[in-house]
Amino acid sequence: MSLCTVSFKARRGRTLSAGLIAGCLLGPLAAAAAPPEIPRGQHGEATAEYQLEELQKLMPQVDLAESPAGFDPVVWAAFIPEDNPLTPERVELGRKLFFDARLSDDGSVSCATCHDATRGFTDQIPVSEGIGGQFGKRNAPTVLNTALLQTLFWDGRSPTLDHQARLPILNPIEMGMPNEEAAIKAIRGIPEYEEGFKKAFGREMNYEDLGKAIGAFERTLVFVDSPFRRFLGGDPGAISPEAQAGWELFNGKARCMTCHPMNPSNPLGTDNRFHNVGVSARHQDFEGLAQQALKAIQEDASEQKLDELAIGTDMSELGRFMVTGNRADIGSFRTPLILNIGITGPYMHDGSLATLWDVIDHYNKGGEDNPFLDGGIEPLALSEEEIDQLVAFLFTLTDVRFADQNQRLFEAQRAAANEQRLFRDDAAAQRRTLPFEQRVMGAQGKPE
Ligand code: HEC
Ligand code: HEC
């Protein structure tokens, strides 16, 4: 299937040009992310062997007794659950499981298929491909630094990494195992696992411990050492003057800081809260979907069902509403962490924005108008120069260990943005038309 032919049905019946949406830029952008000679698996990901070698280079040694660079030991300890201490045995077991496609129904998909170590622990495509070439409705976030998040998934429906890891294995379009038993059966009898579980947990292998082992491995993926962090730490030369101007805008005129707080004690750039920033409004009839969702949840309120609806159906667009049933949460998603953002595109819960220029264009015009839009989203009247400054700043948030890939993607995104800026709307951004007028006059009525 070609993602290029997808068209977004905007509210008021406008259809955004089907042309070059995120999926179509996928080729050049993903190709820029990594040299082409990488050996690849069936879904385009680097092979597990290759990823493990890369991981070894990224993290030659992990000293679990030490807190990660930049973290006070007491602060770090707060991120480790009491019932899952970070031991070498658990991390080692979790690493094996994370890269093992035997945990999927057709043996072709592992966690690392969609969270590829050579692609910023995401897949760098708009929405992810699971078993049988099925595509879900959501973009795969990176697993880097997820240890530091308060809730997981775009809608926050999972409380911990240990819990989260149990869901994709059973999701019918991701790894597709029919049930927990089948997943355990797939690895039972394999000596390294039989032994690994005993050493890590002191008992027979079981599904809950499998989640804990994967969670333990993911907690080692802390990558917060960015040029921006060095700048904040007192090195003024760590980022360019252009990026410094972007940082000013981030805190001031562009008002990003209200939802993406960034400071030494909160380096992630997320408030861990849920907002409708007008991305989902591009696609859907919220009211109809909400009714459908309430009915579906009434029939089956299990967390597995919720996972299926969120990832595999149009109800995905309801976001946090699926978890709370609260109208105010319609179309709202957790503010994503924006560390390493340069290498984790395309962007937003649906992967609809290919470049960070698209992201700023989206905010600049005040998002897509809808009844549930967050009050903090308004046209920003940013100039072209200011947009470039904000983008330059965002590219300084990538850990220095990914510097080469970050630079390659910066150049590829810039080239793509020079070609096409699909989400740019100067009239709205500069407040020459207001959403209200657009509603009344229709898209053609713009005084441009
Ligand atoms: C088929 C692709 C695919 C596979 C396989 C997959 N994931 Fe994901 N992952 C996603 C998508 C898409 C999301 C976002 C789903 C959502 O928010 O509803 C996600 C979300 C996550 C998150 C939450 C990140 C955040 O910022 O909230 C974590 C952690 C994660 N996955 C880890 C894993 C682990 C561990 C495995 C293996 C057990 C795995 N994933 C398998 C695609 C995949
Ligand atoms: C009202 C809160 C809010 C404000 C203000 C805000 N954001 Fe966001 N941001 C979010 C939410 C929520 C999402 C996810 C939305 C979605 O996927 O539907 C997001 C997504 C993003 C993403 C994509 C992340 C990813 O991994 O896909 C980037 C980059 C980003 N914001 C940067 C910015 C910048 C730069 C500004 C200022 C111009 C800004 N944000 C202002 C809440 C906000």
Shape: globular
Q: If you compute it from the alpha carbons, what radius of gyration comes out, rounded to the nearest whole angstrom?
A: 22 Å
**Helix coverage percent of residues?**
25-40%
**Separate helix tally:** 20
- Count of distinct structural domains: 2
Share in β-strands: under 5%
Spatial gap, N to C terminus = 37 Å
Structural class: mainly alpha
For the record, what is the CATH homologous superfamily label of the largest domain?
Cytochrome c-like domain
**Got a strand count?**
2
If strands are numbered along the chain, what order do they take across the biggest sheet?
1-2
Question: How would you portray this structure in words?
Answer:
- By secondary structure, the chain is mainly α.
- It has 2 domains: 3-28 and 224-445, Orthogonal Bundle (Cytochrome Bc1 Complex, Chain D, domain 2); 46-218, Cytochrome c-like domain (Cytochrome Bc1 Complex, Chain D, domain 2).
- It has 20 helices and 2 strands.
- Helix 1 (22-33) packs antiparallel against helix 18 (403-419), helix 4 (88-98) runs antiparallel to helix 9 and helix 12 (241-251) packs across helix 17.
- Residues 1-23 have low confidence and may be disordered.
- It binds heme C (2 copies).
- One heme C is lined by residues 109, 111, 113-115, 128, 130, 136, 138, 140-141, 143, 146, 149, 152-154, 161, 164-165, 168-169, 174-175, 214, 310-311.
What is the topology?
Elements: H1 22-33, H2 48-58, H3 73-77, H4 88-98, H5 111-114, H6 161-164, H7 166-170, H8 180-187, H9 191-201, H10 207-218, H11 227-232, H12 241-251, E1 274-275, H13 286-299, H14 303-312, H15 321-324, E2 333-334, H16 356-364, H17 384-394, H18 403-419, H19 426-429, H20 435-441
Antiparallel strand pairs: 1-2
One heme C is lined by residues 109, 111, 113-115, 128, 130, 136, 138, 140-141, 143, 146, 149, 152-154, 161, 164-165, 168-169, 174-175, 214, 310-311.
